[in-house]
Amino acid sequence: MQLFKNTNYDFLGKKWPFIIASLVLTVAGFTSIALKGGLKYGIDFKEGALVQVKFAYPPPDNKIRSAMLRKIQGEVSVQDLSGSGAVNMVEIGTEAKGEGEHQLNANRDDMQTVLTATFGQPDSGKLDLNNTSQEALANRLRDALARAGVPMSEEQLQTQVRNILAEINTQHSGLITDFNQLSSVPGMNAGIMNTLRQECYLAPFHVVSAQMVGPKVGAELRKKAVLATLYALAGMLAYIAFRFEWIYGLGAVIACFHDTLITIGLFSLFNREISMTVIAALLTLVGYSMNDTIVIFDRIRENLKFSRKESLEAVMNRAVNQTLSRTVMTSGLTFLTVIALFIWGGPVLSGFSFALVCGIIVGTYSSVFVASPIVLFWHNYADRRRKPSAGGGPAAPRVETVRKSPTKAVR
Amino acid sequence: MQKNLRTRTIVIVATILLCIFFIIGFPTSKAELVDHLKSNIRLGLDLKGGSHLVMEVQVQDAAKGDAQQTVGRMLQDAAKQNITIPVQPEVSDPQTVDDVGNVTITIKGVPPAQASAFRDLVTSNYPTYILTALNSTDYQMKLKPSDLVDLKKETVQRAIDTISNRINELGVAESSVQQYGQSCSDYQILIQLPGVDDPARAKELIGTTAVLEIVGVDKTHDTPFASREDALAKLGGILPLNERLVPEKPRAGQQGAEWYLVSKTPVITGKEMRNARSGQDDVRKWQTSFSLSPDGGKRFGRFTGEHVGDKLAVVLDGTAVSVATINERIEDQGRIMGLGSEEEAVDLARYLRSGSLPARVLPLSENSVGPSLGADSIHQGIVSGIAGLLAVVTVMLVYYKRSGVNAVLALFLNTVILLAAISALHAALTLPGIAGVILTIGMAVDSNVLIFERIREELRTGKGVIAAVDTGFNKAWWTIVDTHVTTIVSCAFLFLFGEGPVRGFAITLTIGLFANVFTAVFVSRTIFNWELSRQRGMEALSI
User: Fold this and answer.
1) Looking at domain B2-47+370-534, which of 1.20.1640.10, 3.30.1330.30, 3.40.1780.10, 3.30.70.100 is its CATH number?
2) Which of B398, B441, B482 faces A1 most closely, judged by CB atoms?
3) pLDDT band at B255 (very low <50, low <70, confident <90, very high)
4) Which segment of B287-291, B309-313, B315-319 scores lowest on mean pLDDT?
């Protein structure tokens, strides 16, 4: 089975519609960023306090917001996460404008207090089984079990408590609505169940994660991630310049830049947050895009060795056609993996896979329609300057465009 | 060719065995296998649940402490040499770490006649300080920049040591405490507590603000006051110079705290405390013994020698946890005797041992992930990962037929090597790490596709099977080298300049790329060779 056999499409001849599309996308992304007053950063990059809470029923956003505002000064955002694959989850956040770490910390603690006060039973004197730790539960059950006539050694108690919490966390996503859901826990018996019912209650929510990022760390992390990426791009430029020619390095790096910018723009357009995981995804797409570009450049270099009479544009077109099968196969296959992640990967991976879905599409066409034209433009320009009389037409004899070529293949 | 093939096969089998050993060790039972697997493939906090805190060491505290001690020693030394310092020297009180360089001691009212004697005293006794004259009687002292750097480094290191000790004492498995960031953020430490998903509990473990001091109790007022108001009333509303009131930790069954008047200048700080343990003396009464650093021991010896019969207070975070009378001169080994109970002795030993944070430590960021989020992400990640991989395998097998098997084997082996390397390096698998794995798999697929397409191309030009495979591999080799080296170069920069998660990504990806060169080129080639050697004069290749 073969998809393409000896194709001969004029890819570089059709570069303009794609370049224009790229420009439109870039401009759209940047306009969106400008209109929205900057990128939307995830908690790891902006300062603020944030808790993610899973509810047993569709979360009452307004009730949460008004309860929070009674206790916490300043802005409180309540965002429903249901869109990104999470069921009944909300993210409650405060953004700190000029507030110190101390205040953020207090805010975060307050959020948990407010949740318990609004939705739990803080006055019952019971322990909230949906938001507890192994230690707290063990302490609560130790004497109660002894009183109820279910004596246990400390070791048995700890194991039992660990099993109960493991059941809640792994089988029920941290939230149970009925004690009977615990009946399948190993070692569970009527005595323990009754004690649990007496000592604990089930709040209709579960705090999934709690975060606080102070102004210092947020800004620094952001700066470092950007710097590391820029240095990495510079490093790649240097290597490609060494292996090919400097304009090839520049073309490849501009193509990568182009992919990253468009993806970031798409994040703004689709109102998604840039988090640390998204940075990892952006790095991944830089890797993909670079890989794609180099495969084509490599073929151009190889073709140039044997076809000195052909115009550079023709050589490039041939290289793109020759590598077309592999481009479609590789991009298609990686796209399959990423789309699976995007559909089934859940809320944590959603930003990550979104970046890769965009990145693979943009990264694949940028190798052909951004990186290669840059090299072509430069060489045409250089040729024209060198031989003004020849006019720089495609038939003009070409200068050596690639210095280094592989000397000997290694097995 | 046959011999070559055998060597290649041996290398491959050895690699596989080594990898399997790294991943599962030598299990003897099924339970052990699961155990080994769990301990070798460690999951990061974002997947397993736990707390991740970045704390800032308030190094200005340590600088202030050093200045306070210097003031105390200077007053004594000056008295010995009959130099008059009429006013208690003042130590400035900067509030943030950025102002650590602005900790100064201001000395006022030194008679001009004694200026040179005072100058000599300072330069010979406190060589870490620079003395500047403000006018003929007033001076200012500041730590030398190089000594300030040393002090900062030492403070951060001690904070790290102390916090790790505290956490280890409470037995949090696989916790880590380390310096965070490089040059510009010297004072930050990163604390990772797997399995602790409650921020309050995490802070309790770290005990963020415990600062320990041993101070002299004012000997004219060495009986405790009933309350702070009582103390102020008895002292006429003004505290004596360089002294402060601290409450005593209430004992069991005691109503309210009693207050002691103690010196502001500590004799010993947690910095000089080396160790402490509880025990019983000859008459089986409980006691706590402690040891001090040589430097601290000398100072403690001098102080206790001059103050036999006076009282000392052990102050932890502004609360006197113990007050004892000095029976004799004590140097670097001391005992606090006559404690009420074993519990009191054990607690005191723990305070002495763990209270040695040289400065306060404040949280800059805290991140707690509950185990349920991690469990859900892992589940969803695995389901979608398997779905994606199945799709890739199916397409490869359909499109490249039997050669597709090569690619699938290479892909599988690549993943095994990657997992083995992660467990051999004791690295933890985090979400960004998984991003690295995904890129690796993408590039592994790509390398195989590149080679196969090349072989197909060569076959189309009419070459024989053996020649086509040979040329295909040779030509694809340079492309593979270029793509891989470029990515490895970028990984090196990400590792050098990146932080935490970015580094995790770079490490996983680098390992994956090396594994990929091995599997896609070496292993896949070996399988081709094996297939070709099986059927002599083979004319067709399933590709």
Assistant:
1) 1.20.1640.10
2) B398
3) low
4) B315-319
